[in-house]
Amino acid sequence: MATPAPTAATFRPGLIARAIAVFSGTVGYIIKLVLLALANALVAWAIYVLIDHQRWPALAIVVAATALIDWIYLVPHSWALPLKFLIPGTIFLVGFQVIPILFTITIAFSNYSTGHILTKDQAISTIKVNSLEPPPNGRQFDMAPARDSSGKLVLILHDEGSGKVYVGTEKGLTRLPKSAVTLDANGVPTSAKGYTLIHGAELFQLDQQLEAYRVPTIGDAALEPQGTQIAVELKPTLRYVPKRDVFVRISDGKVFRDNGLGSFVSGEGQSAEELEPGWKTYTGFRNFRRIINDPLVRGPFFSIFAWTFVFAAACVFFSFSAGLFLAIALDKRGMRFQRTYRSILVIPYAIPAFLSLLVWAGLFNDDFGVVNRVFHLNVPWLFGGQVFSWLPFISWPRITVVLVSVWLTTPYFFLVSLGALQSIPDELTEAAKVDGGGAFQIFRRVTLPLLLVAVAPLMIASFAFNFNNFNNVYLLTGGGPYTGTSSLAGNTDILISYTYKLAIASGKGSDYGLASAVAIIIFFIVAGISGFSFWRTKSLESLS
Amino acid sequence: MLNHKRMWALLGAAMAVAAVLASTAVASHKAGPTIVIWTDANRAPAITKVANTWASTNGATIQVVQKNFGDIETQLGTVAASDAPDIVLAAHDWTGQLAANGLVVPLYPSNAVKSQFPSYTLNAFSYGTAVKKLYGIPVQVENIGLLVNTKLTKVPTSFAQVEATALAFKKKNHLAYGLCVQQGSGGDAYHMYPFFSGLGGYVFGTNSAGNLDPSNIGVANKNFLKNASLIDKWNKEGLINSKVGYSECDTDFTKSKTPYWITGPWADSDIEKAGITFKVVQLPRIVYPSVPFLGVNGVMVTKFAATHGVDAAAKDLVLNYFSTPSAQTQLAAAGGRAPANLKAKASDPILAQFGAAGKGGVPMPNIPQMASVWTDLGAAWVRSTKGSGAMPAARSFRGAAKSIADKIG
After folding, report:
1. Contact across the interface for B58 and A140, Cβ inside 8 Å
2. DSSP H helices in B34-124
3. CA–CA distance, A361 with A366 (Å, rounded to integer)
4. Above 50 in pLDDT, residue B257?
5. DSSP assignment letter at B65
6. Residue spans per domain, chain A
C-alpha cells in the first residue's frame, strides 16, 4: 500500500522496480521462452491425446489457440502489446466461466437425468441387449472357443442341463460324441478331438468376434457367448423397426414410439409403459415449464425465497456490523498486541468452512452439544420450532444457521473494513471534530459513508454468495427440521439446497436438466438483486 | 538477445521432446488387453491382487483406479468412454440407477456359480421394470445388528426386555436415550429400519412379476399405522432419541455407559480397541420380526467394456473368477465384511454373528425411485422421536408417504 517516497538526493529504486529491471533483459526473455516451450510441449501432448480420442473440433481449437499465443508473445509488434496482457486472463475466463455457463444452459434445455444419459443409438442397442430373455427351457452351456481344421472360430459347448456336448457354429448346433470332448471340474471343455481350443491372450484378441458370435437354435433364439466360458440361449422380446423408428414387443405386438422426450413409450397416462434406458435429447423449455407448473416446485417457492432473502441479508448485515465494530476497536493507534488480536480474528476465515460447519453442528446439538451443556441452556438449536409464538418466521434452527454464517463471514468484513478505515484521511475526521461533531456523529456522517463507498460492492458480492450458501445450510441442518408433514422443504432450506433435494435426491434419481434450469433462474434473481444494488450504490460514489 | 531463428528452433525442440514422450505413452497404452477396474481405497489392494492372479494366467493387464465409493456410481454416468472402467465395484442399491442409465450389462453366470450364492444376494443385483436381469456378482454382504455389552447385561430374548434394560441404564447413567441408534438432524432411515420393519412397515411392495413396485409405498401401510403409537410411547419414555449420532453411541458404548447399540461391522475396531466384550444379535421381534436392511456389494461389467474390446475378458473375470470362494474370501477380508459366496468362510466370529443378525432381512430397494425415500423416511423418524414437541408418529409417517408419492409422481 504505502509507496516509499524517494526523499534522499541519491535515487534508489524500490525492490519491485529493481526486480522488473533484472527480468526485462535476456533473463526475462529466456524465462518467457521456457514457459512458452513448456506450454507448447503440453499442447503437443494434448494433440496426441485428442487424436487418439478422435476429438477433431477440440484439436482444431487447441492448435489454433496455441499458434495464436505463440505468435502474440514472439512477434515484437507494438500493437500486440495489450494482447500479451489480455490473452492469459481471457483464456481463464473462457475456460472457467464461459464454458461452464454455456454447458449449464445447454443442460437446462435438455432432459439430462437418470435414464437419459446415452445417445439414441446407444439407447437402442442397449434396449436390444436388455430385451434378450432365455426362452422357456432355455439352455445354458459351458463353453470353450476353438478353431476347426480350417481355422474358423467355433464354440465347443457342454449343456449344463442335459450334459450333452456340441460344436456351435454360426449355422447352428451339431452334436459331438461325449468321448470326443474332455471337461474340467466345472464342466468347461478342456479339449475336443479335431478342434484346437483357444487360450490366453489370443482369446482376448477375439473379443469383438465373440461378442457378436451367434449360434442360432430354434426360431429367433440363439446361443450368445457371455465371457469366454459360458454361452446362454437367449431370445429377443422386442424387435426394432428402423424404418418406423419403433420397438415392437414380439409377444403381443405392442408398439413403443419415440415420445420426443427421449424415451420409447407405449400407451399414455397411468398405463404408459416405457423402455429403459432412454436417451439425452433437447426438450426446449420443458424444464422451465415444469418449474412453473409443478406444484412440488411452485408450492414452497415463495416461502423459501423469502427465507433465502432474509438469510442472505441477515448474514451480510450482522457480519458487516460485527466486522466493522471489531475493525474500529482494533484501529486504535498504539494498542499493544494489535497484530496478535488481528491474527486471532482472522482464524475463522482461514479454517475450511467444511470443517468448521461440521464442528458447529456438533457444538449446537440440542442434547449433547457443548453450547447447551456449558451454558446450562435447553435451546433446541437444530431441531426446534419458532422462537416467538407471534412470529413463526423466526425459528431456532434459522437463528443457528445465521449465527454460524456470521461467525464465518465476520473476519472477511473485519479485514475489508480495517483496510477501508485506514484509507480514510485523518484530515476529514479532524475537520469534523473542529466543526464540533461528536464521536457518533462523525462516524455516522463522515466515516460510514466513506467506508461504504469501498465496502458496499463487497457487501453485494457477499449477499450473492450467501444467497447460494449451500454448504452452510446443508452441513449444519441438512435443510431441516421438517416442521410440516412434508419432507420436501425443510425449515432452513434455501433455494439452492431445496433445488438440490428436488433435482438430485428425488423422483427417479437425478434430474440435471431441472437442476440447471433452476440454477439459471437463481442466477437471474441474484443478478437482478445485485444489479439493482450496484445501481443504488452509485449514489454513494458521488460523495467522494 | 536470441534471434528469431534460434528461438523457433528452441520451441521446436521442446515440442519434439514432448511428442516423443506422448507417443511412447500412447503406444504403451495400446499394448495387450487392459481391464480397468474402479474400486474404493479400502478394497483396492485385495481387488488388485485377485484380479492380477487371474490376469497373469490369461495374459491380460489390470489397471485399478481408486475412487470414493459413492463417486463410482455418479462418475460412471459422466466419464468419457476412453477413461471409463470395464468393471466396477458397486453397492447393490445402485443397480436400478445404473441399469436404467444403460451403463451396466446383464450377466449370465452358470448354474454352478449361481448355486453358491444366497438367492437374496442375486436378487439384490437384479433389476428390470418388466423382466429382471442380473447386473452384478455379489462379493460381500453387510447389515446392522443389536450389539449387546455382555458384561453389563445378558443377551435379550424379547423386545420388552430390551426396553426395560435400556430404560434402566438411561436412568442410572443420566443418558438422553435408552437404546443407542444413530439419526441426527438429517435422519437415518437405514439404521431405523429394524424398528420400521418390526412395526410392520415396508418401503416398496412387489408386483405380480416379483419386481419392486414404486407405486406401492408401504411407509404408512395399515399394519404399521396400527402399531405407530408405540413410537410415540418410545419417544415419551426416551427409549430412542433422534438427536443421537454415531459419535455419541461410539463414546457411550465403548465406555460401558449403555449396553445396547444398533450398528454395523464398521464399529467393530473401535469397540475391540476399548476391550468391550459384546455379542451381535437381531433386535428381538417387536410386533413383526425386526429385520434390518441388507446391503450387498458386488462387481459389475460396464457397457464400456465392449467399447474397449474387453467385454469377454471382463465378463470372464467377473463371472468365473471374482465369484470363486477363494477370491471372495480375500475380498471380504479386505473390506471387513462377510463374503457373499456361501462356500467362502468369514474368519471373524463377529462377522458370523452379524450374518445371523441379518436373517430374514430385506435388501435395500435397488430401484432408482429409492432416492425419494431416504430423506422422507428419515425425516419421519426425526419428527416423531425428537423428544418434547414431537409429532405423533401416525401423522408423521402418513406425511412422509404422501411426500414420497408426490416426488415419485
Report:
1. no
2. 44-58, 69-76, 95-100, 111-114, 119-124
3. 10
4. yes
5. E
6. 17-108, 132-236, 297-537
The Cα A456–Cα B117 span in angstroms is 66
- Chain A residues with CB under 8 Å of B407 CB are 296, 488, 506-507
| Nearest alpha carbon to residue B323 among B336, B345, B340, B303 | B340
Q: What does DSSP assign to residue A120?
A: H
User: A18: exposed, middle or buried (C-beta count within 10 Å: 0-12, 13-18, 19+)?
Assistant: exposed
> Other CB atoms closer than 10 Å to residue B23's CB: what's the count?
13
**Which is more confidently placed, A384 or B30?**
A384
CA B212 to CA B365: how far, in whole Å? 7
Let me know: does B195 contact B290? Beta carbons within 8 Å.
yes
Q: What is the pLDDT of residues A54-92, one digit of tens each?
A: 788 888 988 888 888 888 888 777 777 888 888 888 888
CATH 1.10.3720.10 applies to domain A297-537: yes
Of B5, B9, B293, B266, the C-alpha closest to B124 is B293
**pLDDT band with cut points at 50, 70 and 90 for residue B9:** low
Most A-contacting residue of B34, B108, B170 (CB-CB within 10 A), to test interface: B108
Q: Which of chain B's residues have a Cβ under 8 Å away from the Cβ of A509? A: 97, 100, 368, 371
Q: Which residues of A touch B406 (CB under 8 A)?
A: 296, 486, 488
Q: Does B92 touch chain A (CB under 8 A)?
A: no
Within 172-211 of B, beta carbons closer than 8 Å to A belong to 176, 185-187
- Alpha helices (runs of H) in B143-203, residue ranges in sequence order: 159-173, 189-198
ipTM of the prediction greater than 0.95, yes or no: no
- pTM of the entire structure? 0.80
**3-class SS at A182?**
strand
pLDDT of A143-195, one tens digit each?
999 998 888 899 999 988 888 999 999 888 899 888 888 888 878 898 888 89
Residue A301 burial (CB < 10 Å; 0-12/13-18/19+)? middle
Beta carbons of A200 and B106 less than 8 Å apart: no
Taking CB atoms and an 8 Å limit, are B399 and A41 in contact across chains?
no
- Please, what is the Cα angle at A26 between A21 and A30, to 5 degrees? 115
Among B141, B383, B123, B146, residue whose Cα is nearest residue B267: B146
* C-alpha distances out from residue A191 to A156, A166, A183, B313, B337, Å: 9, 13, 7, 20, 39
Select A132-236's CATH number: 2.60.120, 2.40.430, 3.30.70, 2.40.128: 2.40.430
Q: Where are the beta strands (DSSP E) in B220-358?
A: 260-263, 278-281, 293-301, 338-339
d(CA B233, CA A144): 64
Amino acid sitting at position A37: A
Question: Which residues is B294 bridged to in the sheet?
Answer: B143, B363
Nearest residue to B314 (alpha-carbon basis) of B124, B88, B112, B134: B88
Do A287 and A293 contact (CB within 8 A), yes or no?
no
Handedness of CA B357, B362, B366, B370 (dihedral sign): negative
DSSP string spanning A355-394?
HHHHHHHHHT-TTT-HHHHHTT----TTT--EEETTEEEE
pLDDT-derived band at B1 (thresholds 50, 70, 90) equals very low
